[in-house]
Amino acid sequence: MATNPTSSQRILLVAAVIIVALLAVNAFLLYNKYSQDRVLTEKTTELDAANKLQIELEKQYQEALSELEEMRGSNQELNSIIDRQKEELRVQKERISEMIRTGKELGKAQAEMQNLRSQTEGYLAENQRLKEENLQLLTAKQQLEERTQALSANLDSANVRTAALEGEKASLSAEKEQLSSEKEVLSATVNLASVVKIQNVRVTPLKERSSGKTVKKKYAKNVDQLKICFQTIANEVARPGMERFFVRIISPLGETLAIDQLGSGVIVDKKTGEEMRYTHIAEYDYNNDQTDVCFNWNRNLSAFQKGNYKVEVYNKGHKAGEGNFELK
């Protein structure tokens, strides 16, 4: 029986379609495998980098601990400092480990590891300085003991011994007074060096409306409060933390505006030793940065005078900066 040509063509067409479909499926599977392999390769590379970074971090951390531990000795104060430094490094290391674990901040983690090393080197330098200072103090103590023993051994009589001891006592007393004086001078110098200077003093006269909003004014009779702002200047000597700025608003008559109920009080000028009134205290959590510090002050319903006003800002008993403004 002869095959129908039309049927044969239809069979060939179906076979061709099936072959094309199989080729397309095969191509899709190959492409999908290639994509999966590429993603897997990228993930593996990232994981290898993270693992390598974590190993490097652990090595650096252990080396830092070992170096700090080598500086431990019999001085309890230094040992306490080392314990504190080790705890700070542990916290820093845990933070970097978390960054590595997430895998999204490897570049930043590497930078932080460099900071960790710099921090360790700073600790080691500080500890070495303390050890050298302790050694100098110990040497000085030993020399003083040796000198005292030599004096005692060379005294032939009670009178000579007494005179020598009195002379030594006077010398030690003078040294003590000198050291005390030098300590006071050093303390005053450090205090002055740590003063946080300010700049760009700005005063905005305001009036509060019945709605509670404030608007700018320039005439004294319309002003019921002042907004005082100034900018801190970075000072690496000052330790980060809460800083207190004593602000004096001086009227055109030369009087300091002060109301005790609104936080006014008295401070001592470290330069002159004189007491002086201040208007307000502005507190700021200073972090060795340049930041605007602002506050509002009113006269408790009493009127302001027109004329030129002066603003002085003190920190740690020293003038940190000043400015002025005018009310018409």
Structure, explained:
By secondary structure, the protein is α+β, with helices and mostly antiparallel strands. The chain has two domains: 9-117; 198-327, Sandwich (Immunoglobulin-like). It contains four helices and ten strands. Strands 2-1-3-8 form a four-stranded antiparallel sheet, with no helix packed on it. It is flat, with a radius of gyration of 38 Å. The protein starts with a helix and ends with a strand. Residues 184-188 have low confidence and may be disordered.
Could you give a quick summary of the protein structure above?
By secondary structure, the protein is of the alpha+beta class. The protein has helices at residues 5-70, 76-102, 106-154, 158-193; strands at 198-208, 214-216, 225-232, 241-250, 265-268, 275-278, 280-286, 292-298, 307-315, 318-327. The protein is built from 4 helices and 10 strands; from the N terminus they run H-H-H-H-E-E-E-E-E-E-E-E-E-E.
